[in-house]
Amino acid sequence: MNDTPFKLLIIDDDEIIHEMIKSSLNTDITIYNAYEAKHAFEILNDQSIDFVFCDYSLPGMNGHQILSIIRENFPDVLVVMVSSHTDSDTIIGAMRNGAIDFLCKPFSTDSVNISLERAMRMKVLFNDLNRLNKQTARLKDDLAEIEGVSFIGESSSAKQVKSLIIKVSKSRDTSVLITGESGTGKELVAKGIHQFSERAPFYFGAVNTPAIQDTLFESEFFGHTKGSFTGAVADKAGWLEVANKGTMFLDEIGDLPEMLQVKLLRALEERKYSKVGSSKEIPFDVRIIAATNKTKEELASGKTLRTDLYHRIAAFIINIPPLRERREDIPILVNHFINHFSGKMRIKIERIEKDALKELSNYSFPGNVRELRNLIERAMILTDGKILGKAHFPDICSQSTTQPIDGSNQIVTGIDCCDIYDLEELEKQTIIKVLQICENNKSKAAQMLNIKWNALDRRLTKFNIEI
Ligand SMILES: Nc1ncnc2c1ncn2[C@@H]1O[C@H](COP(=O)(O)OP(=O)(O)OP(=O)(O)O)[C@@H](O)[C@H]1O
Ligand SMILES: [Mg+2]
Question: How many angstroms does the Cα of residue 208 sit away from the middle of ligand 2?
Fold first, then answer.
């Protein structure tokens, strides 16, 4: 069971009890003797004692007090109480206080050995459990370091993002603001922070702020009481309550109406909130992670996000650069998504041709990683073989040459990319062209551009495109 003999400390003011225990034991164990509490604690401090047989009535300090001190300061030490007080109150009190067994004086040789054997079995189990816990913690850390959660990328900026995820996940309450264009992986990063924090076993809730009606947001977020407004037929828990001990991710925080920004700020500052229709303040234990695709300058201007809320939430900022600024991540991501979809679609892609990869590496990816993911998924649906080539990426190889496969996959032609050196202008022209193709149907255009509907809407405002 154990390479080195276990260590037993006997605490009793009666020499005869020491002798009786010692002569009863038929196990190879190192015995230490203490006749009063002070000496016992010296031994506990100096030796790694495994078990204590402790008398209940000692001069100066009773067994109950000694037991409490041992539980608090030497939690790995297992204590068997020994006493002639065999009333149920004493026994139950000792067990409740953390003793693992109770030996009634006078005791038999057998009962001493049975107590010790039971303690030894428990000790082995505890040691195994401790080892497993340490191993799990180490593995979790290693995995986090190596994999950097599921955020894939080896460019220096991707490595920086991964390292920030790991760092901030260790602090329980710090609010985080994740910035980056649409599709750069903001939600993925938020999930990573949650996953590697001690909040991981609890709820992770993601709220797409622009998708929630302003009037509903407050009651969804904070909850409401019955009768607080027409339709409030019963008390309702808000997300803050549902996500207790977990993490709430607020996507596009800049789209939160001003009044709600004020309420959110107050809740974050006081770590308390009130339900709609109630003045009762309820404490909450939820980490808030927010995201925005606004630039730092736009945010600092206070036009979309109140400056005070920005400073409150931006205790820790993680900026994810667009994919076109970390092109060395493209091949790794391509590989990752090929493996991902191979598993899902149960097909085996052996490789991607060099010229196809080159085209992908040179592409501007206005929809960032989401767009790359969608391109790979589509290419894998298109292919009949085991190799992905240029033909499977008509949308990008197209920017100059390829013909569209069908109406839904039309490629944006008619923009002379060589004449446009400004990426924003290229993005604007692409959107205008796609809108023309889709006859101003925004949903279709968003689908074709591989971005979300609201992301397209924001770009229309940004570029002053009227339809
Ligand atoms: N570095 C990455 N490694 C692996 N997958 C990624 C990475 N970045 C993004 N993705 C994937 O790309 C898709 C889009 O990511 P996500 O939804 O997190 O982006 P976002 O920044 O929140 O976008 P939006 O602003 O449109 O809400 C997801 O499927 C995500 O898993
Ligand atoms: Mg998102």
Answer: 7
